[in-house]
Amino acid sequence: MPEQIAIPEAARRVKADFPEFPSNEIVQEILEFVRDTGEPWLWRGHTHTPIPEGSVPKYVWEFDVPEFGSKRQAIAPCPHCQPNAPKYKHGVIAYFPDEHVIRLMGADCFRTTNPEAHEVAKRELERFQRSVRNQRYLQERLPLLPDLIHAAEAAFPQAEALDAVQANLVREVQGLMLQTLQQALRSGELRVRSKGKEATFSREGVAGTRDVEVLERFGAVDGVKLLMELRSPIQPKLRAVTEKLRELNSRYVDDPKLKEMHDGEKASLVRGFQQASRRLTDIYASIKDRQRFIAPANLATLARWSEQEAPEVVVFIERVGQNFRVGKTRVSSRTIEIPNAARRPLLSLPAMP
Ligand SMILES: [Zn+2]
Description:
Blueprint lengths: L8 H4 L11 H14 L20 E7 L11 E3 L3 E7 L1 E7 L4 E6 L3 H4 L1 H27 L3 H10 L1 H17 L2 H11 L3 E13 L5 E14 L4 H4 L5 H18 L3 H6 L2 H31 L2 H14 L6 E5 L2 E5 L6 E3 L3 H4 L10
Antiparallel strand pairs: 1-4, 2-3, 4-5, 6-7, 8-9, 9-10
Helix pairs in contact: 4-11, 5-9, 6-9, 9-11
The protein binds zinc ion (ZN).
Zinc ion binds next to β3 and β5.
């Protein structure tokens, strides 16, 4: 026999005090009470009686009864199906518009009584919760739009300069050379060929060795996307995302306006914001990646590697002062200018709450 809970008379009294759908204040009061006491059946407005035939709930919000370390699955008695013993942990604030009462009960208890009405109430609650979540999200994030727009605009010089470096580099490193370089850099890790020995066994079972070529790790090169994503200049993407952010900003005026917005519009605004801020983050990452490629130490690695691998590898790349030289050989190499803007650090993107 499960543990019995003594229910006070006050809890059983029908409190038809709620002619209107419970306000946000009532909901907050209930959630706070349950969180603090762990005894939803003692909340001042709760009616601890079974649901009369024909009365159908609207679900207002969900809650969990705190365990306070007891690790039980059932904590609170349910007015509807088990009024004197622990029945549920996951509960729902159920409002009964016909009776003007509120019952704090097990979240799925009404399903057995009336599956269709339970499903309708549940779907309506989910829709409402989505709308509240979207509302909160937009209230937190939309004020960041001006900062995001500023960050996007501020990245144009870097994007332009790096796109130019990329285009010049590709022009110098054409055809086979580019392929060789791309292949060598695909993993981001350079290798050099050296001679080694491999054990062999003849058909007669005599052990021997033979010369083989082995690949050894030489070093890592950062930001190889500059050479890999040739058809993917940054500027057009940055322009598109800047426009998108500006458009979102023009749709958002202030909070009261946000509250008037219907759910579909809110949901589309949330999606638009998520997409645009994710894209801007990606663009920032691309720019930083390309900036790592043109860093002196990085190009020095590449230059040492190309020297060591010559003459098989037909590429020469070297950092000279602020710029770098690229070509088939040192003699035939040409200078690729790295504009100062390419190196300029980016702003920090606003932190998302
Ligand atoms: Zn129940």
